[in-house]
Amino acid sequence: MAAYILRRLLLVIPTLLGIMIVNFALVQFVPGGPIEQIIAQQQGQGDVFAGFSGGGAEANLELDNDLTLGGGGDEKYAGARGLPPEFIEELEREFGFDKPPLQRFLLMLGNYARFDFGESYFRKIGVIDLVLEKMPVSITLGLWSTLIAYLISIPLGIRKAIKDGSNFDTWTSGAIIAAYAIPGFLFAILLLVLFAGGSYWQVFPLRGLTSDNFSELSLIGKIGDYFWHIALPVLASTIASFATLTLLTKNSFLDEIKKHYVMTARAKGLSENRVLYGHVFRNAMLIVIAGFPAVFIGVFFGGSLIIETIFSLDGLGRLGFEAAVARDYPIVFGTLFIFGLMGLVVGIISDLMYVLVDPRIDFESREG
How confident is the model at residue 64 (pLDDT cuts 50, 70, 90)? Predict the structure, then answer.
């Protein structure tokens, strides 16, 4: 197993390198880079800093706001006509675009190898600090949504397998399919309308992860306030994820129940509960339990932008969206590297979970 893990870890490097190469190459052809956005702002054609706080590009670049129009500008950048060439050159130096793309890419990889992701173009704060600042929101949504999905899906899936074909199975299947068909953002809006003062009851807060007076509350008060705020966004994130997990649990149990060892256990006179939870459960839960890390990462990364926007939560989803819109490349590539690395490591952890749940699995012999 150690040799298998070592091979998987070594594969992380070329895989991550390939991800960065593809995305860096694509960015070279995307119009509206950071220089064009600064030019547009100087020309009064747009505001690149919408949604950003904590320092603007003017403070970061320390450029003279009293620029006088004149000169031919730089034809490389849209909207640059009429701006002094010195202004464009200063922008290129500040953003590092005075170097060839290959040199910029190699410098970026060298910094990332030391886990130095630089600072945001439009905020005077490091990428790591930004990610750590937004991480609690995304972890909250991902962790609690995954836990609730498992707590609902496993008992429900087992019950459906035992009652396969019954009215209970039919009605719950209909409810699960309906829940799966409802988009998460639509369910989130429905929750706001019903329970956050939209048109009916003001039961839960409309926005934020904690109250304004959170620091003044007691420990129990802080815990209650935290769960009070996350109730609706976590529920909106969970509604679709538990459907697939429930059906997966049911089908896994049904497959195991039909196997010969189950009939043998019953023939020996074992009780139904002993057969189901002493023999079937471990084998049926292999794929469900071992997939927990991958499910968490899927919820952690997927769909968070819309949920965070609807509930006014400042998490990684909004950070990535705002960075992409503003072409804040240090944040874009830094988060891509971090999350790509996390995803690859989680894949290895998932394999280890399989072995932990069922030691009979041997990835080395399968590769051989």
Answer: very low
